[in-house]
Amino acid sequence: MTLHEIVLIAHSYLRWLVLSALCFACLRHTRRWLSGAGWDRLDERTQVATLGTLDLQFLLGLILYVLLSPFPRAFLADMAAGMKSAQVRFFGMEHALGMLIAVGLAHVGRKRAERRDEPRQKHRTTAIFAWCSLACMLASIPWPGRSSARPLLRGLGGEAPVTSPASSASAAVAACPEVYRTRCASCHGVSGRGDGPLAASLKPPPRDFSKSTFGRYRSDEALRQVIVGGGSALGLSPLMPAHPDLSEAQLGELVRCLRSFGSRE
Q1: Is 224 among the domain residues?
Q2: CA angle, 99 then 105 then 110, to 5°
Q3: Is there a single domain that holds both residue 135 and residue 179?
Q4: Where is pLDDT greater, at 73 or 253?
Q5: 211 lies in a domain?
Q6: d(Cα 212, Cα 63) in Å, to the nearest integer?
Q7: Are residues 198 and 81 in contact, defined by beta-carbon separation less than 8 angstroms?
């Protein structure tokens, strides 16, 4: 397992702790604000714990964004092309911006609450900013059903099998599942020729699946290794991200998809 996969899995699972802490803070401070309760030690500990988990999650996200994930690099290398790809735009800009705002709101709420003398006002300020932070975070998560969807629980086959598009420009494209369009086409192109909108910004360029040289990697096992483990799994470009969350059904569909591109020669 690569460092990218380890940090990605930790980031994915930690979000549930962050969301739980935020929800608890929202409900507790709202209830105590409306009831006029005082500010006690548990209120203080709730704030410290919530901000601590938020900061840790943000740190993991920052490591992914700056050092490990290929999507931000591709987006920053060619923003015009990145804006045309929903998945690259989401992970290169929207996700990071939304989480930055969520963390910022939580910290601003903490600072403003500290300046309030009356407990009810402290609860009110904390509750309002906590709810806003939670809303930004929920809007910035790649939930199933979105074009940038990721599994709820990484590594457990959390995504449901997908079906092929009903219509397409060619039989080869029609043989590809929706997951190819959402995760692969931005680099490899809709027709698998390595001409996706981000291809020009990647060095080395994405593989052209229609070329005969692609035959060296055509065994089902080799294709699965690259899809699941990323380019580093076979000594290829580390810019090719790993997708360890895909189900066996999805892997089978992707293998057939890639074979269909090569069969056109």
Answers
A1: yes
A2: 130
A3: no
A4: 253
A5: yes
A6: 38
A7: yes
Q: Which of 239, 242, 245, 217 is nearest to 229 (CA)?
A: 242
Clarify whether residues 130 and 234 are in a common domain: no
CA-based nearest residue to 178, from 166, 196, 195:
166
d(CA 219, CA 136): 44
Is residue 149 included in any domain, yes or no?
A: no
What tokens appear for 27 in the block?
């409900």
Range of the domain at 124: 3-139
Cβ atoms of 260 and 194 closer than 8 Å: no
The tens digit of pLDDT for each residue in 216-234 reads 556 888 888 888 887 777 7
Q: Contact 114/94 with Cβ under 8 angstroms?
A: no
Confidence of residue 93 (pLDDT cuts 50, 70, 90): very high
Site of tokens 């906590």: 130
Residue 193 lies in a domain: yes
Please give the DSSP secondary-structure letter assigned to residue 146.
Answer: S
Range of weakest confidence among 98-107, 113-122, 144-153, 209-218? 209-218
Total length of the chain: 265
The torsion angle over the Cα atoms of residues 82, 87, 93 and 97, rounded to 10 degrees, is: 170
- Taking phi over 0 as left and psi of -120 to 50 as alpha, with beta for the rest, 189 belongs to left
**Which two tokens mark 44?**
């203080």
CB neighbours of 258 closer than 8 A, spacing ≥ 6? Answer: 192, 209, 218, 223
121 in the same domain as 9: yes
Give dist(CA 110, CA 75) in Å, integer: 33
Alpha helices in the chain (DSSP H): 3-35, 41-63, 70-77, 79-82, 86-89, 95-114, 119-139, 171-174, 178-183, 185-188, 220-229, 248-262
pTM, rounded to two decimals: 0.66
